[in-house]
Every structure is written in structure tokens, then in C-alpha cells.
Amino acid sequence: MTRNDALALDATDPLAALRDQFALPEGVIYLDGNSLGVLPRATPGRVQQVVQHEWGQGLIRSWNTAGWMALPQRIGDKIARLVGAGAGELVVADSTSVNLFKVLSAALTITRADAPQRKLILSERSNFPTDLYIAEALAKERGFELVLAEAEDLHARLDERTAVLMLTHVNYRSGRMHDMAALTQAAHRAGALTVWDLAHSAGAVPVDLQGAGADFAIGCGYKYLNGGPGAPAFVWAHPRHAERFWQPLAGWMGHAAPFEFTPGYRPAAGISRYLCGTPAVLSLAALECGVDTVLAAEPLGGMAALRAKSLALTRLFAERVQATCPALALASPADEARRGSQVCFAHPEIAYAAMQALIARGVIGDFRAPDILRFGFTPLYLRHVDAWDAAEQVREVLEREEWRRPEFNQRLAVT
Ligand SMILES: *Cc1c(COP(=O)(O)O)cnc(C)c1O
Fold it and tell me: Rounded CA gap, 205 and 219, in Å?
């Protein structure tokens, strides 16, 4: 393969035009859409319209006239199309961490009612820390125990003591993707419920929550959904669970009739009871623009087409780096079926400094402690030639030993 071959792939790429939806800065190859997605061109205008017109002119009337109250459900229905959920089953609210608290708590409440002898929350040792922290705190609060296992041992660890299997579908560090259907089936066979974190899946890989028979799911708005820094997150409960119990953050927006201002809580029907407080209208406006950039792929083959391109990009990049940078070890699964939309390489000493050197060259990925260079590939806006050029930059940084420069060895707060 040559650079011209990469250019030829771009020339015939059926998804190429989707890149025009984004305001990409000049001179940057952005391989960090798994941390913070790129700004959609539509977002500044839309946010300005909401600020100037809906807020500035409409003021309080806009809660009724501009559809503000329905934003959590309206955007939720759009995200549902990307993760195999039905309309009316998913809402946007709060952060991923907070939504995990709600659904994990609901799953524990269901367990307490149906199988009180089950006391274990099973998760993966390398799960994203906030997920483990929330689970640890809830376990302590509710009299459960959090147990951690390696990915390959999860099946064997499911047993009659397991209450909930809580996993992140695509691992944030390695990019390893679980078989959601197989693990959900195994959990159900063992009598446990499942909670899936889709932070690195929604908008990145095909997800079929209904098809997998999953119980609960949450996910992130600011990664592959391009919703902007700190964008609201989403929450889904299978309809068989949604109305069984209250979730613990029983705020007024999850009430059946918030504007009756009654002293007692009556949960809203369905997933709307997973709302808590007032919707973050400005953030939701930005998030909707981001979600729309992913939905724009629907007439072009949707998530399946995005997945095919994502694999082509990660394959090209991984093969080039492996061929030209023997010092770096592939830390993502070589088997594409088990890989999300990112590629990671490990180096025991220079991973942080090498990433800083790459960022200085305009190739933006990130470093994940202790030894990982992480490269996220968003097929909506990346080209095959970007993958090729990024791999060349990695080779040059290593060959010229740019990672030795002192300024690249000073740790910043956000890596
Ligand atoms: C990014 C990410 C989060 C982020 O949670 P916030 O509440 O938005 O800070 C949570 N879980 C996983 C697996 C993530 O990758």
C-alpha cells in the first residue's frame, strides 16, 4: 500500500462527504474523537439561535414554544436509532457517571426484590475508573460487593451469587470490544442482570441493545456523538425494567406531573422517570447537532457503513505503524471483530513524551497511563490519507527521537 492508494480509497469513499459537516482546524489530524468529538459546523449557529432567539427573545415562554421540555426525549429517540433501542426507550440527561448510578441502583433494587441472595456486582478490572468508583460506592451503600475480573474470566465468574454484570462495551484504553449478546446471554443464564456502558460505542460501532436482550445501558454525548465538552449523557432501560421501580435520583423532571407541584413523588411513565432535574438546554442544543452528524450516515448505510470505514482506517494505521515502528507494541486486539474504533500502542518508557511530540506535529491522540498511546478514529471525518499520514508522523517522531525533548516530558493535568 502507498499513500496514493490511500488517496484512491478516499476518492471512492461513499462516506467522504460527511467530513464537510465538521469545522476541522487546519493542519491537524484529529485522532481523539473518542475523548472529545470535533465541532460540527451546524453547532455554533444553532447554539447562537437558542441563546439569542429562544432564550433572549422567548425567555420563559420557550419552555413551551421552543420544545425545550421535550429535548431529553427528542434527542434520546435519535440516539436510540444508533444503539438498537426503540423510540421512547432512551433519554438524555446528566452525565455518564450519574446515569450509571441510576441504572446500577435500579438493577440492585430489582435484584433485591427477585433474588435477594445475590450480592455481587461483577465488572472488569480495566473498566473505566468512574464506573468502578460509582459501583464501589453503591455496593457499599446497598450491601453488595464489587468483584473485578479480567476480561477473559468474566464468563467463568458469573454464578448464582452474581447480581449484576456491569461492563463497558469497548474498553477505553485497549479498544477491546466485548461480545454484548454473548455476555448478556451468559449473565441471564446465570440469573444476573446486565449494565452496559456505551461511552466508546455509541456512534462508533454498531450496537443492538434490543437484539442482545440487554437490561440497562448508558453512554456519553461528547465522544463519538460530537456533542461538545461535557455534553449530557444518555440512559436506557429495557422496557421490561423501566417501570418496575423508581430510580434513586427521583427529581421533579422524572415525576409524572412536575407542574402539579404535589409533595409526593409519582414516577413518570417509562424511561422519562430517569430524568432528574431541569434539562441543560444549551448543552442539549449542541448535542443534537452532534447526534445529527452521525444520523447523516443513515442514508449511506448507517452504523454498518461507518464500522466498515472505521475498520479500514484502524487497519491501515495499525499495519503502517507495526511495519515502521518496531519499538511500539500493538495494545489493541489484532482481531478486528474484537476492536472498537481505536488503535493503541504501548511503550514502557516514552509513550507520554512521544504523544506530546505527535501533538506538537498536529497529530492529536492521547496518552493513557501507564504506557499507552491511544489513537481514536472517527470515520465521519477522517480520511484514509489521514491514517497514512499519521502513521508517517509516528515513524518520524520515533526515528528522530523527538520524545527526548524536555518540553515533551512535562506532565500536563489532562493527558
Ligand atoms: C468517558 C467515559 C465516562 C465519562 O463519564 P463522565 O460522567 O462523562 O465524566 C464514563 N465511562 C466510560 C467508560 C467512559 O469512557
Answer: 13
